[in-house]
Design a protein that fits this description.
It is built from five helices and two strands; from the N terminus they run H-H-H-H-E-E-H. The chain has 137 residues and is mostly helical.
C-alpha cells in the first residue's frame, strides 16, 4: 500500500486509480485478517470487514443501495463487530460478525429498517463456526 501511495500520481484516470487502490488495499486487508484471526482479535477483524465494504462501495463501486443499507443498519447495532457485502456485488448478500447476545436484536432492527428504506424484506441466516477444511481419511 505504501508503494501505491507513493506512485499513485502516475495513474491519471481517477476511476482506474480508485480501482487499483481497492485491489491493493484489499490484498493488505486480507493478509492482516489472517494475522489478526490467528491471534483472536475479532475487533480488528471486524474493522477490516468494515473497511473492505467501504472500499468496495467507494473505490470499486460494486455495492448498491440494498447492500449499503444492510451494512449501515447492521453497524448501528451494539454487538455488531463488522459487516460487509459478500459475493460479486451489485446486489446479493452481506456477512456480519455479531456477538451472540445481539443476533436477535440485529435481525429485528435491521430487518425493520431495511424494509422501511428499500421496501424489500431481508432474509437472515445465522451461521456457526465449524472446523473448516480438513483431510478426510
Amino acid at each position: 500500500m505504501s508503494d501505491f501511495n507513493t506512485l499513485q500520481h502516475y495513474i491519471t484516470d481517477g476511476v482506474i486509480k480508485r480501482r487499483a487502490r481497492h485491489v491493493i488495499s484489499e490484498n493488505d486487508r486480507t493478509f492482516e485478517a489472517v494475522a489478526v484471526l490467528k491471534t483472536g482479535d475479532l475487533g480488528r477483524f471486524g474493522q477490516l470487514m468494515n473497511d473492505s465494504h467501504d472500499s468496495l462501495r467507494d473505490d470499486y463501486e460494486v455495492t448498491g443501495i440494498e447492500l449499503d443499507t444492510l451494512v449501515a443498519e447492521s453497524r448501528k447495532i451494539p454487538g455488531v463487530i463488522g459487516s460487509r457485502m459478500t459475493g460479486a456485488g451489485f446486489g446479493g448478500c452481506t456477512v456480519s460478525l455479531v456477538k451472540e447476545e445481539s443476533i436477535d436484536r440485529m435481525i429485528k432492527e435491521v430487518g425493520e429498517n431495511y424494509l422501511a428504506k428499500t421496501n424489500l424484506k431481508a432474509d437472515f441466516y445465522v451461521a456457526e463456526i465449524g472446523n473448516g477444511a480438513q483431510k478426510i481419511s
